[in-house]
Automatic annotation (TrEMBL):
PANTHER family: DTDP-D-GLUCOSE 4,6-DEHYDRATASE-RELATED. The lineage of its organism: Bacteria, Pseudomonadati, Thermodesulfobacteriota, Desulfomonilia, Desulfomonilales. It holds the Pfam family Epimerase. Residues 6-152, 182-282 form the NAD-dependent epimerase/dehydratase domain. It comes from Desulfomonile tiedjei. This is NAD-dependent epimerase/dehydratase family protein.
């Protein structure tokens, strides 16, 4: 399959908008679904309207659909009309704290919405490649892994007895059973992830779950509750205070740029794996950093100090350490390569929040 029709949910969000641009440039007819729920979740900072307008100006083959994935009839009509060759499902409620405070809404968006889309595809285009933007938060009990503490970060203690823990990080064999460090949000994403897998196994649909970790890029509308590195860059550029929630800022994540994530999704579309396959996809150990290390990196590149406020209480469902072992994906797709370095990612975020007054202070 060279080109065709692609349906992208959450098309004005970070991964969705990157998907629109990527597939549009390849010549696909792009159908985007987005109703800017992020603005209702998080306020003006989360508003993705600016991104939608940018996509409308730049994309050659974008048709935008303002609908809610919780509406099965609306999705059914759209999928029946479009009959896409590829589905990239990015729409979600993405924040732990929001999910904790609004569990029913979180469930209906992340789980029911995914089920609605799967069922619409099963009934109308079961042969379409279905890529689900899952999450590293599906894994429970990550916080039960023994760890050490250095001056700037926590680190896993290697233990061959722990299934799914390797020298590279967490792989797909790590258990999904609940535990500290998953929370309501992660539980909903795990339920959706399992549905995507099961539709592949039961109905033979080419479904794939991509369990991303800390995706970021200039297409983000970051807020305090979601998108830590982009929000940190926003705070630095705009002179805001950045709150560090718990763990003394030593919590660790691996970072992947949205372009690299979407290029991996496209690679899957060209050669789908077994139905119901799940992959971890992040920056890996070489692109991991703690909150403290992220602050230092951004400050050193910008030549300016971040106003950081350290709080004792960690967020519910927040992993102390998470690093993706991407070996399974890289073994299946050896020609794929992650192109964006941490420094390139930071420069991209600075450009997103460009401010003439800020750059005037940089000399």
């Amino acid at each position: 399959m060279k080109t065709g029709k692609v349906l992208i949910t959450g098309s004005a969000g970070l991964i969705g908008s990157e998907s629109v641009s990527f597939f549009d440039q390849l010549g696909y007819q792009v159908h985007g679904v987005d109703n800017n729920s992020r603005a209702r979740f998080f306020g003006s900072d989360g508003d993705t309207g600016w991104n939608l307008e940018l996509l409308k100006r730049k994309a050659r083959n974008l048709v935008h659909h303002n609908l809610d994935i919780r509406s099965a009839p609306q999705l059914e009509r759209l999928v029946h009309q479009v009959r896409p060759d590829v589905v990239i499902h990015c729409a979600a409620q993405p924040a732990h704290d929001f999910a904790r405070n609004h569990p029913v809404l979180d469930f209906h968006i992340n789980v029911t919405g995914t089920l609605n889309l799967l069922e619409a595809c099963r009934r109308n285009c079961p042969e379409s490649v279905f890529v689900f933007c899952s999450s590293s938060k599906v894994y429970g009990q990550v916080n039960s892994i023994p760890y050490t503490e250095s001056e700037t970060r926590f680190e896993f203690v290697p233990d061959p007895a722990i299934k799914g823990l390797t020298a590279h990080g967490i792989n797909e064999e790590f258990p999904l059973q609940g535990g500290e460090g998953r929370g309501i949000y992660g539980t909903g994403k795990a339920a959706a992830d399992l549905l995507v897998q099961e539709y592949g196994v039961t109905y033979g649909m080419p479904t794939v779950s991509l369990r991303g970790n800390c995706m970021t890029g200039s297409g983000h509308s970051p807020v305090e509750l979601h998108g830590f590195l982009a929000y940190m860059a926003r705070c630095l550029m705009e002179g805001r205070t950045y709150n560090v929630f718990g763990y003394k800022g030593k919590q660790v994540r691996d970072i992947i740029h949205s372009y690299d994530f979407v290029s991996a999704a496209h690679t899957i579309c060209l050669s789908p794996p077994e139905p119901g396959t799940a992959y971890n996809l992040g920056g890996g150990r070489t692109k991991s950093l703690s909150v403290l290390e992220a602050i230092e990196l951004l400050q050193s590149m910008a030549g300016r100090k971040l106003d950081a406020n350290f709080l004792d209480l960690a967020r519910s469902g927040d992993h102390r350490i998470y690093i993706s072992d991407t070996s399974k994906f890289r073994n299946d797709y050896p020609d794929w390569n992650s192109e964006w370095s941490l420094e390139d990612i930071c420069r991209d975020l600075f450009e997103r929040f460009d401010d003439e007054r800020f750059f005037a202070t940089m000399g």
